């Protein structure tokens, strides 16, 4: 009799549930999207109850579509995006929306922390940036924000669901690490960071390893989804390390690159890599490993923006159409360079005031040039983060790509050409969900080790680099990496003008 496992992936713009067999084959999957709300300048929020409803819906749909007996489903693993923050009551009722990583209202507070307490980075591994719940909590404290004053708990979207579904107050190490409040060496909350935020450990959930099992699903939730109330959920981790796990990028030299709405490049390490230049993060995964790398605000969201610009009313330009247009433009996009900072930027520049910028634009450029330049800009930024990892001794031997961008042949080819390395593609781009599912199997003693996933990851293609293009891109990168330093004060002046 076959057995199955579900990965629940709570992302920035949607929640996905995928049922797998033990070989990684997808049996059923469903996705439910939800919006990002922008109630004020530099704010980015989501409705937590809407996300909960979406999570219940996708699980219910997958259970129905799979049509398997309940006893054949062994468990569910949870993946979630990082850096979300909800002010909540002791009962798990939200007093605020979920403030997400793209929110930069706490820029001044993050800047102040960086000036006055820079050692926090070396204790938490998290860059001092407005993406972090730490900076947001300082903003709330300084403004005496009513939801902050009235709240008993300050939690992520995953913790929100765990509390409401299981009445447990626990958080996995990697989600805790992404708050900027967690000591990555001691595996506990950092007192200095708590003091800066004006809170205590009692206001946070207890950190637990990613294998922690949740049981006793709330009866009304179990009934609505169609699950046995005692089915075990594994608390899992954030989507970054689970994407690495989901493609089998576990050993030194294995680099995973994920491009969805945002994008990231990551490696597992056996020790924290605390970068003096603060270009990258180091988050704890479990008792023996860390996940190190950098996340960019700007991945697929860049193409989505261009898609909206180039689509006429009633006729949407598809990703396939955009890829075809980009493929008609040569490497370098006919001498057009794009800095992809359309929503500010995290790694490696950590500047929420940065702006998207086309450089070299002329009347001869066509849509395909702009699209290709945008694709190249995203990958050049990822490469720049990768150079920081390389500087710290983490070389890139094997590249694994996942996320929605992997559906675009030209975009993956640009990745291979810029890095000058073959790119390995899994059959499914939902690697975070597969990583969450495999972690659940390991937690339930259904598989002997996390590393055994390498034996069963369903891989599709390997894209080889064009080494002539790589040599060209090396020269283009030298220009790309210098441009930000030449114009960043202009971004600040524009931002100040807009604020005033």
How would you describe the overall organization of this protein?
This is Gluconokinase. Keywords: Kinase, Transferase. The protein is globular and about 65 Å long. The chain has a domain at 4-240: 2-Layer Sandwich (Nucleotidyltransferase, domain 5). By secondary structure, it is an alpha+beta fold. α10 (239-247) crosses α15, α13 (367-391) packs across α14 and α14 packs across α16. It is 38% helix and 21% strand.
- Largest sheet strand order: 17-18-16-15-21-22-23
Structural class: alpha+beta
| CATH homology group of the domain at 4-240 | ATPase, nucleotide binding domain
* Outline type: globular
Rg over CA atoms, rounded to whole Å, is 22 Å
Figure out the total of helices. Answer: 16
Could you give a short account of the major beta sheet? 7 strands, mixed
Distance between the termini: 66 Å
CATH C-level class of the domain at 4-240 is Alpha Beta
Give the averaged pLDDT, no decimals: 95
What would you call the quaternary organization? Answer: single chain
Strand content: 15-25%
CATH architecture of the domain at 4-240: 2-Layer Sandwich
Q: Give me the CATH fold name of the domain at 4-240.
A: Nucleotidyltransferase, domain 5
Overall helicity: 25-40%
């Amino acid at each position: 009799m076959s057995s199955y496992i579900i990965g629940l992936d709570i992302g920035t713009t949607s929640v996905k549930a995928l049922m797998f067999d033990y070989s990684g084959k997808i049996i059923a999957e469903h996705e439910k999207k939800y919006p990002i709300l922008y109630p004020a300048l530099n704010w980015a929020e989501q409705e937590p109850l809407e996300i909960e409803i979406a999570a219940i819906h996708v699980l219910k749909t997958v259970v129905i579509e799979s049509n398997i007996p309940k006893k054949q489903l062994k468990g569910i693993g949870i993946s979630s995006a990082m850096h979300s923050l909800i002010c909540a009551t002791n009962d798990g009722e939200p007093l605020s929306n979920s403030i997400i990583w793209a929110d930069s209202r706490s820029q001044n507070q993050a800047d102040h922390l960086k000036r006055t307490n820079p050692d926090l980075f070396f204790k938490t591994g998290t860059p001092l940036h407005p993406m972090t719940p730490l900076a947001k909590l300082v903003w709330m404290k300084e403004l005496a924000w009513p939801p902050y004053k009235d709240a008993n708990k300050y939690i992520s979207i995953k913790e929100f669901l765990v509390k409401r579904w299981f009445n447990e107050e626990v958080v996995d190490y990697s989600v805790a690490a992404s708050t900027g409040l967690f000591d990555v060496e001691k595996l506990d909350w950092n007192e200095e960071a708590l003091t800066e935020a004006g809170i205590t450990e009692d206001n946070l959930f207890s950190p637990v390893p990613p294998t922690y099992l949740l049981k006793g699903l709330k009866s009304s939730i179990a009934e609505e989804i169609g699950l046995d109330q005692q089915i075990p959920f594994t608390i899992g981790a954030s989507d970054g390390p689970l994407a690495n796990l989901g493609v089998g990028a576990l050993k030194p030299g294995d680099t995973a690159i994920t491009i969805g709405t945002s994008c990231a490049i990551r490696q597992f390490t056996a020790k924290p890599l605390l970068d003096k230049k603060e270009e990258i993060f180091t988050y704890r995964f479990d008792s023996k490993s860390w996940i190190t790398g950098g996340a960019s605000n700007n991945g697929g969201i860049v193409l989505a923006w261009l898609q909206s610009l180039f689509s006429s009313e009633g006729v949407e330009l598809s990703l396939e159409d955009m890829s075809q247009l980009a493929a008609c433009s040569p490497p370098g996009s006919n001498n057009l360079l794009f800095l992809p900072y359309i929503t500010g930027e995290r790694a490696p520049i950590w500047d929420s005031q940065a702006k998207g910028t086309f450089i070299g634009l002329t009347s001869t450029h066509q849509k395909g040039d702009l699209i290709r330049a945008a694709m190249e800009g995203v990958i050049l930024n990822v490469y720049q983060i990768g150079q920081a990892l390389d500087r710290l001794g983490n070389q890139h031997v094997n590249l694994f790509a996942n996320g929605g961008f992997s559906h675009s042949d030209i975009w993956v080819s640009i990745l291979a050409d810029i890095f000058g390395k073959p790119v390995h593609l899994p059959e499914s781009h939902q690697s975070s969900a597969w990583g969450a599912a495999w972690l659940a199997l390991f937690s339930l003693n259904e598989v002997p080790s996390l590393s055994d996933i390498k034996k069963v990851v369903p891989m599709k293609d390997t894209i080889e680099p064009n080494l002539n293009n790589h040599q060209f891109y090396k020269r283009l990168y030298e220009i790309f990496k210098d441009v930000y330093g030449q114009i960043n004060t202009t971004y600040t002046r524009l931002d100040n003008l807009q604020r005033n």
